[in-house]
What does this fold into?
Amino acid sequence: MIVNESIIHALHQSTLVAEFRESEIGILLPLLTTRHYKKGEYIARPGSCELEDALLILVGGKVEVVARVEDEPMVMHLKDPGDIARVISFVGGNMMKIDATIEVTEDCAVLLLEREKLETLLSTHPVIVYNVMRGLVRFAHSLARHKSAETEELSNYFYRINGRF
It folds into this structure.
């Protein structure tokens, strides 16, 4: 993998390496795969995803993720370096099956971290694995907080609560 400034920037913008020292980032980097996609291409589609257990980290460009969760459509836009997708597939494996369509809306570069590759560090660098997982929990928590704030704002708008609207 060719490591350039945009890859390092994307990693630092993500929550994954927040607690890493530079030497630990150096250990993680060879496990990452860089891929480039053109606008209109699909990174994943239901039933045909070669990235089965891979975490996706945006380096540049824009990506739209559309999934059905409990028969409700969920849309997530990755637009900033460090944005992450496929967390459930990465940590859940066979236990958590979510089919999502991931479409490139602007030419992009992404980093892929396969769970199997990260697990190779369990016996030699368990702290790195632990900190990646902590980073994913922080990411999921921030999404939940953001969604909760959006819901409250919509509720305030519709019911004109708290004099905000």
Q: What stands out?
A: The two ends are 51 Å apart (CA to CA).
